Amino acid sequence: MRVASVRWFTPPTRPRPAPLFFGQERALRALEAAFLHRGHGYLVGPSGLGKRARLLAFLEGRAFPKEELVYLPLGEEAFPLLLPEGEGRALVEGVEALFAEFTPGLFREKGFLYAKNLVESRHEREAEALLQTLAQEAKAHGFALAEEEGGFTLTGQGPLPPELSAKLEETVLAYVEVRQRAQAEVAALRRSFAERLLQPRVEGLKARFPEAARYLDWLLESLLRAAALEEEVEGEALLPRLLVEGGTRVVYEPNPTPERLFGHLEYEVREGVLTTHLGLLRPGALMRAAGGVLVLEAHRVLELGSYPLLKRSLATGEIEPLAPRPEVRGPRLQPAPLKAQVFLVGPPEVIALLEEDEEFLELFPFRVEFNPEMPYTEAHVAHLGGFLEAQGVRLLPEGLAALADEARRMAGHQERLDARIYRLLDLAREAARYQDPVGREGVERALKAREDRFALEQELFLKDVEEGVVALEVTGERVGEVNGLVVLEGPLPTGRPVRITAQAGPGREGILSIDREVGLGGQVFHKAVLTLAGYLRGTYAQLGALSATVSLVFEQSYGSLEGDSAGLAELLAVLSAISGLPLRQDLAVTGAVDQTGRVLAVGRVAEKVEGFFRVCQTLGLTGTQGVVLPKANLPHLTLRREVVEAVEEGAFHLFAVEEVDEAVELLFGRRAYWVHEKVREALEHFQKLENGDGEKG
Q1: Which of 29, 91, 287, 418 is 20 to 30 A from 208 via CA?
Q2: pTM check: above 0.85
Q3: 3-class secondary-structure state, position 47
Q4: In 3-state terms, what secondary structure has residue 343?
Q5: d(Cα 218, Cα 98) in Å, to the nearest integer?
């Protein structure tokens, strides 16, 4: 059937405020279920759908528990503690206040100094009495007691009597013992004095923070020991580390390295030794999202090697910060509890790789699937405009209509809109630089500029067609030749005609694809050739086995070929080659066929039509040229205005077919049964020649 009208354009539409998940209601339901059950999930869909942006907007303003994570030192280890909002800060400030009171000034108070003097005076008198007794006895023997740097000694004339030497040793030992008892009593006094001051404060902290009792007891003992021994207190080794407090608890980590995801201990060099402490502990994204949500890009998690660690963390419910090198001196960190809900965001190909892992499906039970398309409705067009305006793009109704047309072209269907709204946003912003507010003119200029950026290869191709370098004909008739249509994939897919030729003769090899034989044809392409052979066997079954060899080739095609969209064109070329009947060159053909002769839909039909139209424009429109395409593809004809106008004016034609015979009559210009009869006669002739029954010359 000849298609008379292909007008499909969107009427001018005014924007309306857009719901956050317009066109993605399925994804919204899945997200709500994930949050209802507090389960981890993953968002899947092509880029440009706004998956991450919508998720973050969905979470904005939500109230999440804001527990605070504190790491508490405990000797050679440090353990985590989760406390209610504000309590972590209160614990740290309480401990810091304790340290503030534990100063050298604590032991300069009158009460302590008086008691200390009493103890020291008493032991000093005892020590002096020991020395006086020794001095008197030494004097009786003619010796004097002297104090030197290394201790006490007796000096005098002649050798030191043994009994005096023994007395000296006995006195020195007693003297040292007195001194030691003095130091011990002073130490006990210092400890007791500090304990009377610190114990009540520590007990108060323990009453408020019973979860930290073990740490507080250890801290008190450490301070009392330092007080007794007059040691300097190392706050770095004793103070807690408040790692996470406040914040929104919705964390997006764009660079999920293991260090940034799980946290890590940094280290420093002190006197040539590598050391670390809790002050150098850096929180990871999983910690910062405690009680809330962590959003990650799936491909980045895989690329940066964090996926196995993330799986282990989700399975155990613990976050283990990365430790420094083994030679670094410092506390060993115990894992922190994992309290975040994790969502991965990724394209289908990355998610498909992850879904092959059964553990992944167990850990991430909620699949949030974004549809790459949405129905073309007035409401969705208006909401699209509302989304664009919310992003700062001012729109006229005609401009929104033009953008919606592009969304329908991107979807490749008149009744669908491409849901990659952020790609449309890029186009709208580019259009705004030409026209603000954006109207149809601005959108068309932006589209033209975008096409020009990718147009060099197409321009060179059309130049080669015009100069005859690429052998294409769009007028007249040829035997065994037909114009097929292919699409060059890329940033801007482009349709292009290609000359398909066939040669037939007697033989037993059937359909032989030269492209397939040299390795240029893919599996689906080869399937189409075998299907074509199946059609021939079914249509001409009364002849028995086909005694024909037909070679098929895509002329001047040097890249790989894939797909079955050239099946109808190949079949027509084969029928022409066998029968010797010519085919129209002013018609290009696209469409797949099945073994029964039904013409099936193909992809990117609009680009294919436009590709042949451009070639006909280049070589000159005659008014008879056009494209034969599957009737099932009519809803996919989202053609540019110049092509639509050419069709409606009769300068270019479109023919929609459902059966092979309809295409046969269009291309051969004869009734289908007559063409089939000519094919049968040729096949019978081939059979006779193959059997040796043909005419002898």
Answers
A1: 287
A2: no
A3: coil
A4: strand
A5: 14
